[in-house]
# Entry
Amino acid sequence: MEALGYVTTVIVAVLVAALGQWLIARKVTADGRFGYLLVLALLGAWGGSRLFGPLGPIESLSKVGPSIGGFYLLTGVLGAVILVLTAVYPLRQALRGESTDVAQIGIRDPQVAHWLFNDTRSAPLWLGVRLYLGYQWLEAGWHKLEDPRWTQGGTALKGFWERAVAIPENGRPPIVYGWYRDFIQFMLDRGWYDWFAWLVIAGELLVGIGLIVGGLVGIAAFFGAIMNLNFMLAGTASTNPVLFSLGILLILAWKVAGYWGIDRYLLPALGAPWSPGRLFRWHAPAHA
# Structure
């Protein structure tokens, strides 16, 4: 997609989000609802224009209709409208004071989910997962740190990127999604592998250390899963699917996964943006 295509995507998303907010409140203002609708519209517009491949005689379902700078209007607008309109109904419910919690209609989480993700009795299980996953990341980062092909010019990463973007004459290319191939090619053309190799090394080491000591486990697992996802998008399976799955589970269990670790003391002190910990609780002085 060209620059004009991205601009068109944003314009379409803003217009569809504004339509959605008008349907909810009969006015358009820059508030939380509009921000939420805008995110949905951007995802829908971009996804509708880029993500759906061949279907029978159709070369690509996402390339139906006219395009502007690589943004396909028909499927892009349709994707944005679908996501935004499906958000309008529950947002209108909330505006009327009606409950949008599915538990109110009898759809509740099983007890095992509460035990796994909210009960410290499951912490030993997550400790085992943490130690295994953390060691895998620590070993991978340490191996790269000792390899001059990674630390001296990033030639190993350069070779990986070159193999990933190659399109063979026969068979499927390593990278399935064209947008990701363009992203890798963009970095390759600018020689970013030199410093990006160090970013990969630092990321793997920090994720490994964070998981092993149990410090900010949810954040460490998130960045680990992001690295796994990028390796898989580049066409490398190896152990990445397993490590990615374990990382997602640790993200879900972020409240208890680090209980036998630094998070046992760090999380109550820091809290979360929606639930400040002891360090960020400011109490007004008592009046005599």
